[in-house]
Amino acid sequence: MIVQNLLNRNIRVTNARCYDLHESLVASAYPMLTKVIPRESNESDVKRAIKLANTPAGTGHSNFLVGIRVSFDLTAPRYIWQEAQRYHWFDIVSSQSTMHKITSMDLRLDMFTDDTPENAYDAVVVEQMAYRMDPSEENFRRLKAAVPEGLMLTARISTNYQQLRTIFTQRVVCKHRLKEWEYFGEWIRGLPMSRELITNE
């Protein structure tokens, strides 16, 4: 199913889809079944899934949440990507690459976060111009080193409700200093059955 977008200046989620929600609700009953019959999810599945999703972390009872998959395009500054990559099931399907394209990117101020210092933007543009005039290895390394943390880059992400639950707890509930995580948490709140299965609100 299609999921809403997040269009914040410093973090954006687009092209989002959620898969296998109802199938995973049904599968949450499997441990207690002697025979599995394919069927649609019902109110009993929803009640059980909510109960299992809210069991203590590490018990394994909420494993069915891994089956509720979410894919989306995430555009975020480099400093968010460094933190996002710590999550085991936050898979980067494909992403923009400064290694391949920083020399040819048409760098504009709107490609950086609001709080990127203008002198940092100017520095990377100067180094890019220097590389274009003399594409030496030394100039490439100087250009790569000058790329500010506020450069916005896009990647396609594949994850699941179990991982989003961890991210929400660690980045939103624990009030992370970077506001981008708060905005991302608002997007998580808008996912189907998020309040029951992810945010526990």
Poorly predicted runs are: none
H/E element sequence: EEHHEHEHHHEHHH
Overall 3D form: elongated
Give the CA-CA distance, first to last residue.
Answer: 23 Å
Question: How many helices in DSSP terms?
Answer: 9
Structural class: alpha+beta
Q: Report the biggest beta sheet as strand number plus sense, adding barrel if it closes.
A: 5 strands, antiparallel
Helicity, in percent? 40-55%
What does this structure look like?
The chain is α+β, with helices and mostly antiparallel strands. It has nine helices and five strands, in the order ββααβαβαααβααα. The chain has helices spanning 21-27, 43-53, 78-84, 98-101, 118-133, 137-146, 161-173, 179-189, 194-197; strands at 6-8, 11-19, 69-77, 91-95, 152-160. A five-stranded antiparallel β-sheet has the order 1-2-3-5-4. A hairpin with a 2-residue loop joins β1 and β2. The longest helix is centred in the middle third of the chain and has 16 residues, at 118-133.
Name its key features.
9 helices, five-stranded antiparallel sheet, alpha+beta, about 200 residues, about 15% strand
